[in-house]
Write a structure and sequence with these properties.
Length: 738
């Protein structure tokens, strides 16, 4: 049974379109260097038998003794379906090589896995498997940019001519990949990324020093829930949808007696939280004032001038405390250019610095607190936006049904413009918070996807169903909760609200908004609201936020059984005020996930550096071996024709040039301790020594109590188990089709 969107699309393909077609496409099997190793014609669309045949041809082309089989990793966009019964199929149809797939490991390309169920991410994504390096699997798609161009031509050819043409193009493509230039680029890139990930992970190990030993003893292996096959428990995920409100987080920290380490020393956590909250509020106000100023084509109105004056005064007060909590940025602060308007100033929050700068300036603790506040603020913004869009949808319905005459229509339109302005402010807040989270390198793209106007579209719950509704999909807003995007398949949005054209409108149409009486929706980071007493809402405020009350049908729609979720912000979990103990547990889980994912990033790039050294050595040795073979052919009397000898010598020279080029590039970019192999030692021995030196960057023994990684997708018992500090250079194979 298909459980992933990707599988549902494949199973739902219209097979009738292949009528009268002998060949409907190709399945290519490639190595990780994008060399096409085998190709099979598809008959009637993509199916497991065709893919198995392509893999079989690849396995036959490079046979090994049974006791010397290298570990193989296969990547395919439909792997969660292909790999389930692959051993049974091969025992039946390809018995001689069944042991290869029985011991193989399986992945799904990094982009394709996003279209699968969330559990597939932890089971098949390369990032969460040991000894994978940076094998994301998407390189298989590179070749189709070239091969698709010949597709229309080969479809008109006879079988023999078509195959010959494909072989020639595949051969040309493979030859371009033999040179070492790409390896040079990949190794240099891997070294840079490795250092970045290593230093960041080491910083987190210091930051969470009291917890890392406990977290390190946790199992990295994904575990499939036996009661629900679609549920996968992993150290890299929350495994739940609970999230506290921003107010609850701040209240907890204000009442805490704990301290936090800043550049000036240890200070009370509550004081830092209050100051950081005020900074984020100013950050939000800056964005709104800038947006308001951009709508003024001439001289700014008095309201904008007064808002700028108040903002400038608040920033000056906040800067005084910033010098205490962020004293290490004094030189950077003095170098900041003077701006004409306060909304153009950089507040120099932790999100305004790079990861390296945050580590050097000792801003990691502040950055962690900013991440927590931004996560909670994003959740509250989503909940508020969902309510606002529901009110807007209801307002359009009320206008159509009840507004009669010019006066009633004018009032209705003015009310709708206010709700639209509130919606636009909330969308701006969401993208602002999301951008800050991305700058802090803590943005979960799947959890907090980009938000556009089309994502807020929602089908009317008051109108009768109309023809074409089944082809209209609601916006992504309705797939979110306060804990982020809970839907495992992002959907696209189309259409309009209640048949009304959705157009981004400026505030020029509303006299009240143009006069600048306020900044629209009250900022999320409002100290007066959060500090820390309930604020009474005036009657006028209540009327503004709900000009048109949604009907009972609208309010109850979300709870009706059988009604599909609407766009992505609507499936994101409900707001929940949590106890202090629950908030602390939520914070620890957040910290653990951040630490575990940083560890996975660091280890994959470490493996990538090691793998590229092995590939350089393979290229050099393979070129030397082929050169010697052609030289032997040129010397021995295999042919009396001078042309044959000249041909062999020509290829000998070509391969020697390739070997010398690869060796020169390897000397240029290789790490000396890995490049220079001592006599009697292997690359794996040098890798172990190099890793031991690299472990000195961490303040604890990472391999002392770490459990063995067990890959549940591997069929052979124990073959997918990875010992601690294992060195493995597997053979990577990518399957793709068009």
């Amino acid at each position: 049974k298909a459980t992933c969107n990707h599988l549902k699309v494949e199973n739902g393909a219209n097979r009738a379109k292949f009528k009268n077609m002998s060949v409907t496409g190709n399945v290519n099997v490639q190595c990780s260097h994008i060399l096409v190793c085998s190709s099979v014609d598809m008959k009637g669309g993509e199916n497991h038998a065709t893919v198995d045949l392509g893999v079989k041809l690849r396995v036959e082309s490079c046979r090994f003794d049974k006791d010397k089989q290298p570990p193989r990793v296969f990547s395919y966009d439909n792997m969660c379906s292909l790999a389930v019964h692959i051993v049974k199929r091969w025992l039946l149809y390809h018995k001689d090589d069944a042991d290869v797939v029985e011991k193989a490991r399986w992945t799904i390309p990094a982009c394709h896995v996003k279209n699968h169920h969330e559990g597939c991410d932890y089971l098949y994504c390369y990032m969460y498997k040991m000894c994978m390096g940076h094998f994301h699997g998407e390189t298989a798609e590179y070749g189709w940019a070239i091969f698709n161009a010949i597709g229309p031509s080969v479809l008109q050819m006879s079988n023999g001519h078509r195959i010959d043409t494909l072989i020639m193009h595949y051969g040309d493509w493979n030859w371009r990949k033999v040179i070492a230039r790409q390896l040079l680029k990949d190794l240099n890139d891997a070294k840079v990324k490795y250092v970045e990930k290593r230093d960041f992970f080491a910083g987190l190990c210091v930051l969470f020093e009291s917890k890392v030993v406990e977290w390190n003893a946790m199992d990295r292996s994904p575990c499939v829930d036996p009661k629900s096959k679609r549920s996968v428990v992993s150290i890299y995920s929350h495994n739940n949808q609970k999230a506290p409100t921003l107010k609850a987080i701040v209240d907890k920290e204000m009442s805490s007696s704990d301290t936090i380490c800043v550049s000036s020393g240890n200070v009370k956590l509550g004081a830092v939280a209050s100051w950081l909250l005020e900074g984020l509020r100013l950050f939000q106000i800056q964005h709104r004032v800038f947006k308001l100023a951009s709508t003024c084509s001439s001289a700014p109105p008095k309201s904008l001038t007064s808002q700028r004056s108040k903002l400038a005064a608040d920033i000056d007060v906040w800067r005084k405390m910033q010098k205490r909590y962020m004293g290490s940025i004094g030189s950077r602060l003095s170098q900041e250019p003077d701006k004409q308007h306060p909304e153009e100033q950089s507040l120099l929050l932790p999100s305004d610095f790079t990861a390296a700068e945050r580590g050097a300036l000792r801003l990691l603790p502040l950055a962690t607190k900013q991440v927590q506040m931004l996560e909670a603020a994003l959740g509250e913004t989503i909940s508020n936006l969902q309510t606002t869009v529901k009110n807007l949808s209801s307002a359009f319905e009320r206008k159509i049904k009840d507004a009669r005459g010019q006066d009633a229509n004018t009032k209705s339109i003015a009310g709708i413009r206010k709700i639209e302005s509130k919606r636009n402010d909330l969308m701006g807040d969401y993208n602002l918070f999301r951008g800050a989270l991305k700058a802090l390198d803590n943005l979960d793209e799947a959890k907090w996807p980009p938000l556009e106007l089309k994502d807020t579209f929602r089908k009317s719950t008051e109108q009768r169903r109309t023809p074409g509704d089944s082809r209209v999909v609601e916006g992504n807003l309705w797939g979110m909760t306060s804990a982020g995007h809970s839907s495992w398949a992002a959907r696209t949005a189309s259409g309009a609200i209640s048949g009304y054209d959705v157009v981004q409108r400026s505030t020029e149409g509303s006299g009240e908004e143009q006069s600048g009486e306020g900044l629209g929706e009250e900022p999320v980071f409002n100290v007066n609201v959060l500090n820390y007493h309930a604020r009474s809402v005036t009657q006028s405020e209540a009327q503004v936020t709900s000009v048109f009350e949604p009907t009972k049908e609208v309010l109850e729609h979300a709870d009706q059984p059988g009604v599909d979720a609407d766009g992505w912000i609507w499936s994101a979990g409900r707001m929940k005020n949590m106890s202090m103990q629950e908030i602390e547990q939520w914070e620890q889980i957040n910290n653990r996930i951040q630490w575990a994912r940083a560890e996975a990033d660091f280890e994959r790039w470490q493996e990538e550096v090691e793998k590229k050294h092995a590939e350089f050595m393979r290229v050099i040795n393979a070129s030397a071996y082929a050169r010697d073979a052609w030289m032997e052919l040129a010397r021995t009397p295999y042919s009396s024709l001078p042309g044959h000898v000249a041909y062999a010598k020509e290829h000998c020279d070509i391969l020697e040039a390739l070997r010398a080029d690869a060796e020169a590039k390897y000397s240029q970019c290789g790490i000396p301790s890995l490049r220079i192999i001592s006599e009697g030692f292997s690359l794996a021995d040098h890798v172990m020594k190099w890793r031991q030196e690299e472990e000195k960057h961490f303040n604890f023994d990472r391999w002392a109590n770490r459990p063995m990684f067990k890959d549940p997708t591997t069929h052979a018992q124990g073959f997918g188990d990875m010992l601690v500090m294992v060195v493995c250079f597997p053979m990577f194979i990518v399957v793709t089709s068009y």
